[in-house]
Write a structure and sequence with these properties.
The structure holds two protein chains of two kinds. Chain A is mainly β. Chain A is 0% helix and 50% strand. In chain A, strands 2, 4, 5, 6, 9, 10 and 11 form a seven-stranded mixed beta sheet that branches. Chain A has a four-stranded antiparallel beta sheet with strand order 1-3-8-7, with no helix packed on it. Chain A starts with a strand and ends with a strand. Chain B contains no helices and twelve strands. In chain B, strands 2, 5, 6, 10, 11 and 12 form a six-stranded mixed beta sheet that branches. In chain B, strands 3-9-8-7 form a four-stranded antiparallel beta sheet, with no helix packed on it. The chains are: A mainly beta, B mainly beta.
Chain lengths: 111, 115
């Protein structure tokens, strides 16, 4: 079954404590991306990757890092989370004109 | 830069009736894709329907259809015979193929289907 798996689904953390949200896909897609969803703003792209070792900034990259050491994984790293990064995060693959596959979402709360 | 506008933050419809969600977009490109995604309370993002800009024929998927007006840059979603399970947030999205493959989303329309 084609899947994009994000972990964790829910996370509450404190300001400044580094965290990583993992994303893994089993569809051999080259393209992967991260979005954040905020009420009234829709989904906005944070970072994307066209292939292994190739990453680039999206619309709202400040405060985030990513890496793409292997094709299937694309973790999102918050080195020093702040309350304004409280959001719902989605990992997605594909997006090449065909269906974009989304993970289940990660609800992050930074206190 | 491409933008997507959904002018209806919230809508409601009675079960079995028809409802139309509006979406307009702004782009100078000619080759692109448009999508409608559904997000139920489970938060999962589900593709409802897809339209290629080069196709003049409007896409249809069962009870869901679009009215694609390329010149007017309009892409509305019509839901026929609304069902309670259609209650969700609906997002219109634009994809320009040739750049970063980035989906640009509207802010969403919250649809409630009433029994």
């Amino acid at each position: 079954e084609a899947q994009v798996t994000q972990n964790p689904r829910y996370l509450i953390t404190v300001t400044g404590k580094k965290l990583t949200v993992t994303c893994s896909q089993n569809m051999n897609h080259e393209y992967m991306s991260w979005y954040r969803q905020d009420p009234g703003l829709g989904l906005r792209q944070i970072y994307y990757s066209m292939n292994v070792e190739v990453t680039d900034k999206g619309d709202v990259p400040e405060g985030y890092k990513v890496s793409r050491k292997e094709k299937r994984n694309f973790p999102l790293i918050l080195e020093s989370p702040s309350p304004n990064q409280t959001s719902l995060y989605f990992c997605a693959t594909g997006g090449t004109g065909n269906e974009a596959f989304f993970g289940q979402g990660t609800r992050l709360t930074v206190v | 830069a491409q933008t997507v506008t959904q002018s209806q933050p919230e809508m409601s419809v009675q079960e079995a009736e028809t409802v139309t969600l509006s979406c307009t977009y702004d782009t100078s490109e000619s080759n692109y894709y448009l999508f409608w995604y559904k997000q139920p309370p489970s938060r999962q993002m589900i593709l409802v329907i897809r339209q290629e800009a080069y196709k003049q024929q409007n896409a249809t998927e069962n009870r869901f259809s679009v009215n694609f007006q390329k010149a007017a840059k309009s892409f509305s979603l019509k839901i026929s015979d609304s069902q309670l399970g259609d209650t969700a947030m609906y997002f219109c999205a634009f994809l320009y193929q040739g750049g970063s493959e980035k989906l640009v989303f509207g802010k969403g329309t919250k649809l409630t289907v009433n029994p």
